Amino acid sequence: MLEMRLFRDNPEMIRADHDRRGLPHDMIDQVIDLDNRWKDLRYQVDQLRKKRNEAARGIATAKKSGDTEEANRILSEVSNIGVKIEQLGNEADEAENERDQVRMRVPNILHESVPIGDDDTKNIERSLHGQIPEFTFKPKVHNDLIEQNAWVDLGRAAKVAGSRFYYLKGDLARLEMALQQHTIEFLIERGFTLVQPPVMMNREAYEGVTDLSDFETVMYGIQPDGFYVIATSEHPLTAMFMDEIIEPSLLPIKMAGVSPCFRREVGAHGLSDKGIWRVHQFTKVEQIVICRPEDSWEQHEELLQNCIDLWDGLGLHYRVVDICTGDMGTVAAKKYDLEAWLPGADAYKEVVSCSNCTDYQANRLKMRYRTAEGNTSVHTLNSTAVATSRALVAIMEQFQEEDGRVRIPEILRPHMGGMNYLEKSNW
């Protein structure tokens, strides 16, 4: 969330950002009004405490001089002051809690370079990568390829777990593991530490990394324990240092997170979102960086370059887009997406999101580092490296042959026993 000092000292910056996003100023005004109420109530409490302290000194002086009447008079004046202090203190706490609940829903300040636009149609293409595949036949959608080769069993998964779950089989399952291993090795070579996080989080930690009022509808909750199953390893890894003061010698902290991810993925979707493209459970390798504020924009570009180099190595055609104001969420200050070309669907579709969240998550998590001037919030960044199910879809559609076979990307073949093609599963 945004620091309180911004609302007090520079609310016009927040209003200008809301104007760029096309948002009303209601929540900004609420935060400021509740903060003023909190300050007024705290002032009243302080004045009453001051009065009580003065009264205590007056009573002590009166008793010392033997003036019992004066001592009783003062005592009578302040007899109910403790009740008033408690009442006003409770009201102040309520105002502060309400203020911060509203403040948590005020989005991050966007970087000045974020393009203006109402929705994803206004995202700007930054670069194109790889050669668009050409076919002498009509390319199939991945749904048809997984059915033809018996690589995925959706029907039995639906029987066991429900729709949008799947059994991954045979060589496609091997390719999924190869993607994980290759990506992990790639990131370790670039200075990342491999971390496997817990797949459940409590509400306090989850509210530190995302706007639950916006995100909770796509998450799975575990009751009555009050846990959430993670939607991405970004969340537990970013929250790893919550309520801590990080030694500056540790920064930047670079983590490669590998985990299953769980999402409800509610809503209606098109044919190209069937199969294993939009599912309730998938595996993702994630990049996380925790760094000094002055380093975060350079780190953002490095995360993006890691994605570009990784996906270039797979030999896939994709584009990088700069996300516009109307397509930005609450947490990120700037975001890039990689969109892979799906020839069967005849569309570019998102496979990577790369975000700089500046100090927004760190403020919520109370995550700081030491400086000569005192403790200050770190910056947090995150980027998909590979969401394996979506990468499999891109590989199947771009590397398909007319007979339904799929070539294995050359860089993954060492992890596949030197195979050149995925073989059909025999059941």
What are the main properties of this structure?
eight-stranded mixed β-sheet, 18 strands, 14 helices
Total number of beta strands: 18
Output the structural class: alpha+beta
Strand order of the largest sheet: 1-11-12-13-16-10-9-4
Total of helices:
14
What general outline do the C-alpha atoms trace? elongated
Instruction: Identify low-pLDDT runs.
Output: none
Mean of all residue-level pLDDT scores: 94
Sheet of most strands: 8 strands, mixed
Distance between the termini: 51 Å
The proportion of strand residues reads 15-25%
**Rg calc:** 28 Å
Approximately how much helix is present in the residues? Answer: 40-55%
Question: What report would you give on this structure?
Answer:
- The protein is of the alpha+beta class and 427 residues long.
- Helices cover 41% and strands 21% of the residues.
- The strands form five sheets. The protein has an eight-stranded mixed sheet. A three-stranded antiparallel sheet has the order 5-7-6.
- The model has no long low-confidence stretch (mean pLDDT 94).
List strands and helices in order, with pairings.
Layout: H1 4-9, H2 11-21, H3 26-64, H4 68-77, H5 81-103, E1 124-129, H6 142-148, E2 152-153, H7 154-160, E3 167-168, H8 170-189, E4 193-195, E5 200-202, H9 203-209, H10 212-215, E6 220-222, E7 227-229, H11 234-238, E8 245-246, E9 253-262, E10 281-291, H12 296-313, E11 318-322, E12 334-342, E13 347-356, H13 360-365, E14 368-371, E15 374-377, E16 379-387, H14 388-398, E17 406-407, E18 421-422
Parallel strand pairs: 4-9, 8-14
Antiparallel strand pairs: 1-11, 2-3, 5-7, 6-7, 9-10, 10-16, 11-12, 12-13, 13-16, 14-15, 17-18
Helix pairs in contact: 3-4, 3-5, 8-14
